[in-house]
Each structure stands twice: as structure tokens, then as C-alpha cells.
Amino acid sequence: MGWSFKVHGGVAAGLGAVFLALAWLTRLPGTLPLLDERWLLPLNFVVVFPTVTAALARLVLARTDKAQFWQASRCLPGKVQAGLAMLFLSGMAMMFLNMGREGNLQSAEVRDGKYFAFDTSARGTAELSWEQYQVVLEVDQRSMLTIPGVVLVGAACAVLAAGELRRADRGVAPSR
Q: Is the pTM of the predicted complex or chain greater than 0.85?
């Protein structure tokens, strides 16, 4: 596999690991002060969009189908497979644990000194206590970190599989 595939896959996996680690840190009591939603969404877009787009482009250029993708994924070294699987399962566990939290409330905000959140069941805003506001804020942070983290891990797997396919097309022995 070429070095560019390794670098791209490593960067995607590393960024995914950072996002997932920050998501797990939101499980600690209190909110993370570094994670302000005003810059978290643009950061997600700036980091995730180009990485995933390039990964998908590499898969398209490799002209792969599902069967070839899974075979190429199985050709990755065992430690790489284990690391990607651990990151992916960590993200899925976070999503599963996050599903039942704080019901239908999302997008917490402060207006005129009062706390509000969008209530999806009533399709309107609801006023919250400070404690509810903190919980909704943590849940929002968690999902804004978990979903991009899992997507980046998937992109890393796609890039590394495309690299293996390219290596196999050239007839080069695998490097383990």
C-alpha cells in the first residue's frame, strides 16, 4: 500500500480517536469547557467533510464493490483491524448509551437569562432548569463528537481498504 493511503488512513483514524475520546470525556461530571457548540459544528464540517470526501474518492477510483472492500479490509494487518474495530465499537457503544438520555430535548441555548431547548415531541422550544440545560448541553456535545468520530473511523477503514486494493492490483506482496 502506498504511503499516501497510510497517512490518510492514519490521520482519519487519529482524528476519529480524538473525537471519540472527547465524547467519552463528556461522560465525566460537568461540561467540557473546550467544547463550545459555536465552533464545534464548523470544526466538524472542516475536518470531516474533506477527509470523508477524499476517502470516498479513493474508493471510487479503486473501482471496488462490497465483496472486494471486505476482502481488502481483511487483508489489513491484525493490529490495524483491531484498532479500527475498537474505535468503531467504542463509538457505537457511545451512541447506544446516548440514545435514551434527556428524551426529546436538543439544541440547548440561553435567551434573556433563561434556559431553553428544542422539544422534538412538541415541535417547539421548552424552558428548562439549569440542571436540565446542563444535561441537554452534554448530550448535544456527545452526539456532535461521536457521529463525526465514527464517520472518520469508517473513512480510515475505506482508505486503507482502497490502498490494499491498489496494492493487490499492482501485484505487490502485503507489508505487515
A: no
